[in-house]
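Blinded run. Sample ID left blank on purpose so nobody reads anything into the name before looking at the predicted structure. Input follows.
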Amino acid sequence: MNVKSKQRAPKIVVVMPAYNAGRTLRMTYEQLPKDTVNLVILVDDGSTDMTLEVARQLGLEIFVHNRNYGYGANQKTCYTEALRAGADVVVMVHPDYQYDPTLVPQIVEPIVHGDADVVLGSRLKGGSALAQGMPWWKFLANRFLTWVENRAFGLRLSEYHTGYRAFRKEVLETVNFQTNSDGFVFDQEIIAQVVAARFRIAEIAVPTRYFPEASSASFLASTVYGLRILAVLFWYLLSRWGLRRSRRFDSLRARYTRLG
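Blinded prediction complete.
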């Protein structure tokens, strides 16, 4: 018998960080390719709408925060529970239907084939984000921040600010994501940790949707978010240059090795 035929198929776990997603959760879940996804975990971050009721109707694996702790805190629970469930690949799919759930097979493919450790679903790789409804000021801010991040990380990605992303389990077991912010800047902190740990990042083009039910940050919130990203890059560069050691950018395995 061929050795490859004996290999277990990777367990694909989709995690959904949810907050007041009751109006869009069902259509997001129903479009997930069930022949690819082995388990769907929803973490509710203190929703006050019908999110939990819909999630129970769909039979999802549910974890509930007793209040709204924040987007980053939600992801921490998502990844912790996905690893506990034995995931080989973890895919974050926002339940607000802004990203196309049918693309899960494409976003996990580079990881399953051993070509990448992290895959980002880029709204800008296809070059049609503005046509799909992205506000012009978000587009310009995204372009500027991505340019700065590429310079800091030494990469050439089309964007870093997507909420559609997949991780090989070893990435989440290695980077110290529990030290990250409980807010939206968590997304950039974990990417900085991935780069610091020298994992491979790939990206695929994904369409995105902008409509009233989809979550969208205000101009002020987006400005604060952008400043926090610049702060993350500042501390990352200090750590990379050896000017200030940061526990956040130490891999857990490296720390355990030193402690041993």
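Unblinding after everyone has recorded impressions. Residues 44 and 52 are 7 Å apart (CA to CA).
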